[in-house]
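Async update (no meeting this week)

Hi team, since we skipped the sync, here's where things stand on the single-chain job. The sequence we agreed to prioritize is pasted below, unchanged from the tracker. I ran it this morning and attached the output directly underneath so nobody has to dig for it. Comments welcome in thread, and please keep replies under the output.
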Amino acid sequence: MPLQQQRPTGKGANQEAVRRHNLGTLLGHVHRDGDVSRAALTTRMDLNRSTIAALVAELERLGVVAQATPRGDRQGAGRPSLHVRPGEREVCVIAVELRVESIELARIGLGGAVLGRRSAPMAPGSNPDDAADEVVRTAADLLADVADDALLVGIGVGMPGIVSTEDGRIHYAPNLSWSDVAFSDLLEQRIGGAIPVVIGNDANLGVLAEHARGVARGMTDVVYLSGDVGVGGGLITRGRRLLGTVGYAGEVGHMRITVDGRRCRCGNRGCWEAEIGALAVADALGTPSHEIAHLVDLLDEVDTPSPPLREVGLMLGVGITNLINIFDPQAVILGGLLSALYPAVRDDVDAEVRRGTLDSEDRRTEVLLPGLGRDSVIVGAGELAFGAMMSDPLAVSSAAEGALAQVRAAPLPR
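Output:
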């Protein structure tokens, strides 16, 4: 969906505030599309050509955008409109995905390109301090070869648990055994407050990424399921993320779908994630290993699913059916381990969805695999980290001067 221009209003809305807002909106269009004409910006932002030219010139002086003639053959008469693209100066964020078994990091540039990756193991029972140390250590390695004039403008973290929308604290992450953790504060302390750190639930970031850059681009109503050991849901309704009052919306993994099912880590029985998560899949495949990569490999080899695996597929279909009947989305996107499980049990899932949903025959909700594959959450963490830059490029760019060197040199306890 196109970004909408909204001018500040009220007593605090002065000319400088409007200018900064417009700079952020314009940069947001460049970040979203990667290449956009000045003519298109004029139409989208409802501003005249001279104002757009002045805004582009200001961002160009910062080095964050560049102008060029359009690629390909020129169409129509007259001089073609210049196009605006990310500039030669690298503007980037560090995106982090905390998984049960690993910590994944990516350096993501303006325009959404993944510029580098690193991975570190997440040892069983890792506490938040250990994880924060590993993130900073791995981030410094990831940034080692970046040009010294690059602008590092934020760190975004996605994690499997309930994250407060009010203060960014991790209220509860049962599969990490964490509760009431200010993880963003731990990271900011280690990097000396050089840049802002923002944190979000993995499924909420997955749907953010798929809506902005993946298979759900252009849709207005989407459910994204992040499923490995646990299962979480990210929701887009009428083009906006649905987070709930304090961030609990989308905890669909603890939707009970049977009264006498498996014991869940939350203490209840029959939670959806207990019936379709990694432990249930491993049991159905007859393997003692719960490692996600191993389970994905085994699922890829499934030709005809066994009865236990078909039962897991049935439970997947029951939960999807409930979500379709509650939210009426255009698509349900299956991320994480679920993206490998679904192809193996597609017939059972689809049959249950057809049988149980209230969709009309001429408008079925689609069950889709993520367009970004296993990168949905980490790309979403990057989008979250870019948020401040899209609000006020001047302030964030100024604050980010020197941040790269500070993160590279962040001291860690021995």
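Quick observations from my side:
Residues 217-370 form a domain with the Nucleotidyltransferase; domain 5 fold (CATH 3.30.420.40).
The longest strand covers residues 151-159.
Reply here if anything looks off.
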